[in-house]
Design brief:
Blueprint lengths: L1 E14 L2 E6 L2 E7 L6 H13 L3 E2 L5 E3 L7 E6 L21 H16 L5 E3 L6 E16 L1
InterPro entries: Daa-tRNA_deacyls_DTD (IPR003732), DTD-like_sf (IPR023509)
Subunit structure: Homodimer.
GO molecular function, one term: D-aminoacyl-tRNA deacylase activity
Length: 145
């Protein structure tokens, strides 16, 4: 599982012109599920996500997590994060989880993050989505298990 976290001032995801998820300040998280991922991995990654310190404290240091900052999380599935790009000019998606495995894990991640008391919005799994954001910093991290 790969999560690309972007600290944002606001973010939204639209499908066919309709807004399906939006947040104010918080984290836009692009989610790539891989074949070896399972529910224990989702639980670990959710804990890691909500406790990852990317928000500034009073001294300007990244010492606060999304809960402490009072932020929200927008989770958007993006299978292309699981691509192998180490060689050639075309990505290989052989390590990406198939939709029948990825979608239940994505939904479980949404529930797990919400279970930590963080407001959660989401994209629509498998849809053609348009994501907009105002990046804050910019601050971007790739989390992997």
């Amino acid at each position: 599982m790969k999560l690309l976290l972007q600290r944002v001032r606001e973010a939204a995801v639209r499908v066919e012109g309709d807004t399906v998820g939006e947040i104010g300040a918080g984290l836009l998280v692009l989610v790539g599920m891989e074949k070896h991922d399972d529910h224990p991995a989702v639980t670990r990654m959710a804990e890691r996500l909500v406790s990852y310190r990317v928000f500034s404290d009073e001294q300007g240091r990244m010492n606060r997590d999304v809960r402490e900052a009072g932020g929200a999380v927008l989770l958007v599935s993006q299978f292309t994060l699981a691509a192998d790009t180490r060689k050639g000019r075309r990505p290989s998606f052989s390590s990406a989880a198939p939709p029948e495995l990825a979608e239940p894990l994505y939904l479980a991640l949404i529930d797990a993050v919400a279970g930590h008391g963080v407001p959660v919005a989401r994209g629509r799994f498998g849809a053609d989505m348009q994501v907009s954001l105002i990046n804050d910093g910019p601050v971007t991290f790739l989390l992997e298990l």
